[in-house]
């Protein structure tokens, strides 16, 4: 049901509509001012013991060329990439099941379980992972019960990765399912009727057709993971750090807000470059199809 | 579906549900330290979660911020969406970019930005700062929701009212707004949920006095190891699931999320 577009209302009362948009302009400008404040702080000197920053300097960016910070940037990139890949691997079968399960009840159940975490917020979800991964938590109790001993899981990269995948999985499944919904199951059946095995039908027909959806979902997962804060903060416990955690520590433990701002700016630049590279790949792939 | 695919899907669903389920079980543990499995059962952590002052104040702050931010964002977002859809004006692209940009900027950067902005301008870090921050963060979702409704709205209805002599302000009130109601309601609901669960930006811009419930929970987890947070999480999870069930019943989740199978219903 495509609506008939009408601009008559706008032509009849441009002043009215312009007035209605005014508060949104103010809100947008406040956001722009907040971002500018970060950029401005990034270029100011830190005066120990003072909250008010000093004169303009590039020192905050020069100081980032330290193995400690480069290591955290690298870890952040690896965690983003790892989370994106693992969420795609885990999300694809789920998206597939949502679309291809015949029972309507089963489909609704799968969808409900997948999207509920999306509405729980970072803190509740992350706390659940502390209880699951803790030294006397659920998984270690299960391991002990199976006679397999205990494993260190909380405050490890693997633990953080599992919790990060858990955060991005719902949105990845939704995006993959939206992409898969446009692919006719008949195409795969046609391939099978022509003698292809189900696996071959999947890998030569459905998977290539869903590639744009896969890349879009992967890009989103990458960007989402970069903005994760509570998950690495609590599950990483200071031993696994992402840029966001460093920014918080520098601000609220050292009160070095200029350096925190500079790290945030570098992080933004790094994600922007990564996302640009990903979108280049996406465009190449779409041209091939 | 083959059996191994079914098994894989079941395992993945278990992975998704596990943290919430485990937290709900631990909430009833009688001991004051996290230790799975519980040996004795008790409701004491629910009592503590409901009476702990920081949680009560936090819940109150969260409610205030959620209601203010979601209502303000809905009004602002509707105004912006109407202008963007119905009007050609200079700076249209700029307005769209400014309003949608918070989608791609991490919350911790937005929080840091508002914190430094307010510190430099000498403005107080009160609840209005939290509300402003939340409005900025949820605005894109409202604008998108209302914009989508506007695009599928039959413009001929407005034209008819205009040609019959109704002034534009009256057409807006009596024709456009009632037709937009589902989009407005969806946008408002989404804004309210996002505001209530927002954590990272709130941590940066709140103070001990203005901390929201997620911030209070975070501070508690860092200091204590007892299952109070598990009890609070259990209440939170059950409430959320009831809300989702209700939303699915009235709005149809698959339709909202765009995962509806053609002819599947």
Q: How does this structure look, described?
A:
The complex is a heterodimer of chains A (289) and B (265). Chain A is mainly alpha-helical and 289 residues long. Chain A has a single domain (37-46, 85-288), classed as MetI-like (MetI-like fold, Orthogonal Bundle), CATH 1.10.3720.10. Helix content of chain A is 74%, strand content 0%. Chain A is built from 14 helices and no strands. Chain A has helices at 8-12, 14-42, 59-62, 67-100, 104-115, 122-133, 138-145, 157-180, 185-193, 198-209, 211-226, 230-236, 243-252, 257-288. Chain A is globular, with a radius of gyration of 24 Å. With 265 residues, chain B is mainly α. Chain B has one domain (59-249): MetI-like (MetI-like fold), CATH 1.10.3720.10. In chain B, helix 2 (44-51) crosses helix 11 (228-251) and helix 3 (53-86) runs antiparallel to helix 8. The radius of gyration of chain B is 23 Å and the shape is globular. In chain B, 46% of the residues are buried. Chains A and B meet through helix 1, helix 2, helix 4, helix 5 and helix 6 of A and helix 1, helix 3, helix 4, helix 5 and helix 6 of B.
In short:
Chain A: It is a multi-pass membrane protein. The complex is a heterodimer of chains A (289) and B (265). Chain A has 289 residues and is mainly alpha-helical.
List keywords for this structure.
heterodimer; A: 289 residues; mainly alpha; MetI-like fold; 0% strand; B: 265 residues; disordered C terminus; transmembrane helix (chain B); transport (chain B); MetI-like_sf (chain B); cell inner membrane (chain B); transmembrane (chain B)
């Amino acid at each position: 049901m495509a609506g008939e577009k009408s601009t008559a209302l706008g032509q009849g009362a441009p002043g009215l509509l312009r007035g209605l948009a005014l508060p949104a302009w103010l809100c947008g400008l406040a956001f722009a001012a907040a971002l500018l404040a970060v950029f401005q702080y990034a270029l100011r000197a830190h005066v120990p013991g003072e909250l008010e920053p000093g004169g303009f300097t590039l020192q905050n960016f020069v100081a980032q060329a330290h193995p400690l910070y480069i290591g955290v940037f690298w870890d952040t990139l690896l965690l983003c990439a790892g989370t994106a890949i693992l969420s795609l691997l885990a999300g694809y079968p789920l998206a597939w099941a949502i679309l291809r399960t015949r029972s309507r009840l089963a489909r609704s159940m799968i969808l409900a379980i997948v999207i509920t975490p999306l509405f729980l917020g970072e803190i509740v979800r992350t706390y659940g992972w502390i209880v699951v991964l803790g030294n006397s938590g659920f998984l270690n109790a299960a391991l002990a019960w199976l006679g397999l001993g205990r494993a260190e899981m909380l405050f490890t990269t693997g633990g953080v990765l599992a919790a990060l995948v858990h955060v991005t999985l719902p949105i990845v499944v939704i995006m993959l399912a939206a992409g898969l919904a446009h692919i006719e199951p008949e195409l795969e059946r046609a391939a099978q009727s022509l003698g292809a095995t189900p696996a071959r039908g999947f890998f030569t027909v459905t998977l290539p057709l869903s590639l744009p959806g896969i890349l879009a979902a992967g890009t989103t997962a990458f960007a989402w993971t970069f903005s994760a804060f509570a998950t690495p903060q609590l599950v990483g416990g200071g031993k696994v750090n992402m840029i966001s955690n460093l920014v918080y520590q520098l601000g609220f433990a050292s009160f070095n807000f200029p350096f925190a701002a500079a790290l945030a700016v570098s992080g933004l630049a790094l994600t922007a470059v990564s996302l640009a590279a990903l979108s280049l790949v996406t465009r190449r792939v779409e041209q091939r199809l | 579906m083959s059996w191994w695919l079914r098994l894989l899907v079941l395992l993945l669903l278990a992975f998704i549900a596990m943290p919430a389920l485990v937290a709900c079980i631990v909430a009833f543990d009688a001991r004051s330290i996290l230790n799975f499995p519980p040996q004795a059962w008790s409701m004491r952590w629910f009592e503590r979660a409901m009476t702990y002052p920081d949680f009560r104040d936090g819940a109150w702050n969260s409610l205030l911020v959620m209601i203010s931010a979601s209502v303000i964002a809905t009004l602002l977002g509707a105004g912006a969406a109407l202008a963007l859809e119905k009007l050609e004006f200079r700076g249209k692209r700029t307005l769209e970019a400014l309003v949608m940009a918070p989608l791609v900027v991490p919350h911790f950067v937005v929080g840091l930005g508002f914190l430094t902005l307010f510190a430099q301008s000498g403005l107080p870090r009160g609840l209005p700062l939290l509300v402003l921050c939340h409005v900025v963060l949820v605005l894109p979702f409202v604008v998108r929701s209302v914009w989508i409704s506007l695009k599928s709205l039959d413009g001929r209805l407005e034209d008819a009212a205009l040609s019959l002599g109704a002034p534009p302000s009256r057409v807006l009130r009596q024709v456009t707004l009632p037709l937009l109601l589902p989009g407005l309601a969806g946008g408002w609901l989404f804004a309210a949920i996002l505001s209530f669960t927002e954590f990272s930006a709130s941590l940066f811009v709140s103070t001990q006095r203005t901390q929201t419930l997620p911030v209070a929970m975070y501070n508690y987890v860092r200091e204590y190891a007892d299952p109070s947070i598990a009890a609070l999480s259990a209440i939170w999870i059950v409430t959320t699931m009831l809300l989702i069930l209700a939303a699915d019943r009235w709005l149809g989740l698959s339709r909202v999320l765009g995962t509806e199978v053609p002819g599947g219903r």
